[in-house]
Design brief:
- The radius of gyration is 16 Å and the shape is globular.
- It has five helices and five strands, in the order ββααββαβαα.
- It has helices at 36-51, 55-69, 81-86, 113-122, 131-134, and strands at 10-13, 28-32, 70-74, 77-78, 98-99.
- Helix content is 37%, strand content 13%.
- It is α+β, with helices and mostly antiparallel strands.
Length: 137
């Protein structure tokens, strides 16, 4: 079975700024293994994003690059009304964070500029097979 299709070839990626958060509550992105074609597309998009002077277009290019390999997230929440509204959610009445449902077209919305670049630049190299899955190879 191709690694990119193997259900155990998923890994969690977290931002450096979240490393001190306990694992049970740490925001994490679920990343799949990417094929060579997907990696080529990722390289093309990130290069275009780096060279793009317009911030909106850069965001769109990075979003497309993120959608190639990021297939979910865990523990993603926000108190920010604008972010919540973009997910069709309302702020909580008590001011607590609201869990964000994963949406491929909104992967980068909760992130600042530095976090977007960190995530998109680093995610292709994080997928590792579990020990159980390695027995098949």
């Amino acid at each position: 079975m191709p690694l990119s299709c193997h259900p155990d070839s998923r890994s969690d990626y977290w931002l450096r700024g979240d490393e001190d958060i306990p694992m049970y509550s740490r925001p994490r992105f679920i990343v799949k293994s990417v094929t060579d074609d997907e990696l080529s597309r990722w390289k093309e998009l990130t290069k275009q994003a780096y060279e793009e002077p317009d911030a909106k277009k850069t965001f769109e290019l990075l979003s497309e690059a993120a959608k190639i390999g990021i297939v979910g997230w865990k523990n993603m929440a926000s108190k920010d009304a604008a972010i919540l509204k973009s997910f069709g959610l309302e702020p909580s009445t008590d001011g607590s964070s609201v869990s964000l449902p994963f949406a491929a077209d909104k992967i980068l919305l909760p992130l600042n500029n530095r976090e977007m670049w960190e995530l998109v630049y680093n995610y292709p190299g994080v997928v590792r097979l579990t020990n159980q899955a390695k027995l098949f190879f």
